[in-house]
């Protein structure tokens, strides 16, 4: 998944995470998807927020993709792609395993830990995707109580 310039095709990577977000929404869950790639575009794992579906508060999109990628000897050449700025929990995962780059679909709806990630040397690319913004805002409007639970608000 590279562009003609040899750089990673972030939009193609985000499209994988968007597919996952749509699947989560179709399952009745929170529409946040993620994927873990090598910098050369090789897909390692993909997943989506399944907190509602699995009744497990730890299954965020990023953690699902991370788990499905399986053990890696190193994460120094990986990119975490997610439809929404990662929360503190998922930001900690990125930092803990040394994932050097996070591509996010949007941070308008939720900022999470992106400034903390940047301060700690993680490259953050915000795609400002209208599709990501609209999908999550539609969900929040219809299910604010589930969203507030997901981000730890009462």
UniProtKB/TrEMBL annotation:
- CMP/dCMP-type deaminase domain: from which residue to which, for each copy? 8-117
Q: This chain belongs to which protein, by name?
A: Cytosine deaminase
- The EC number of this protein is 3.5.4.1
Q: Where is it mostly found?
A: cytoplasm
Organism equals uncultured Truepera sp
Biological processes per GO annotation: nucleobase-containing small molecule metabolic process; pyrimidine-containing compound metabolic process
CC annotations in GO: cytoplasm
The beginning of the lineage is:
Bacteria, Thermotogati, Deinococcota, Deinococci, Trueperales
Task: Determine if Metal-binding is one of this entry's keywords.
Answer: yes
Q: What class of enzyme is it?
A: hydrolase
InterPro entries assigned: CMP_dCMP_dom, Cytidine_deaminase-like
Stretches assigned to coiled coil: none
The record lists the membrane-crossing segments as: none
- Give the matching PROSITE patterns: CYT_DCMP_DEAMINASES_2
Q: In which pathway does it act?
A: Pyrimidine metabolism
Q: Describe the protein's quaternary organization and the partners it interacts with.
A: Homodimer.
Instruction: Give the protein's cofactors.
Output: Zn(2+)
Q: Where is it located?
A: Cytoplasm
Enumerate the GO terms in the molecular function aspect.
cytosine deaminase activity; diaminohydroxyphosphoribosylaminopyrimidine deaminase activity; metal ion binding
Gene3D superfamilies named in the record: Cytidine Deaminase, domain 2
Which keywords accompany this UniProt record? Cytoplasm, Hydrolase, Metal-binding, Zinc
């Amino acid at each position: 998944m590279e562009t003609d310039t040899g750089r990673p095709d972030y939009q193609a990577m985000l499209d994988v995470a968007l597919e996952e977000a749509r699947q989560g929404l179709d399952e009745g869950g929170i529409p946040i998807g993620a994927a873990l790639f090598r910098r050369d575009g090789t897909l390692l794992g993909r997943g989506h927020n399944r907190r509602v579906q699995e009744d497990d508060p730890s299954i965020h999109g990023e953690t699902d993709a991370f788990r499905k990628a399986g053990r890696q000897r190193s994460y120094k050449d990986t990119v975490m792609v997610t439809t929404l700025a990662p929360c503190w929990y998922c930001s900690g995962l990125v930092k803990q395993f040394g994932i050097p780059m996070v591509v996010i679909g949007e941070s308008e709806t939720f900022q999470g830990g992106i400034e903390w990630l940047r301060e700690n040397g993680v490259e953050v690319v915000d795609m400002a995707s209208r599709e990501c913004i609209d999908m999550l805002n539609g969900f929040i409007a219809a299910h604010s109580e589930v969203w507030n639970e997901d981000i730890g608000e009462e």
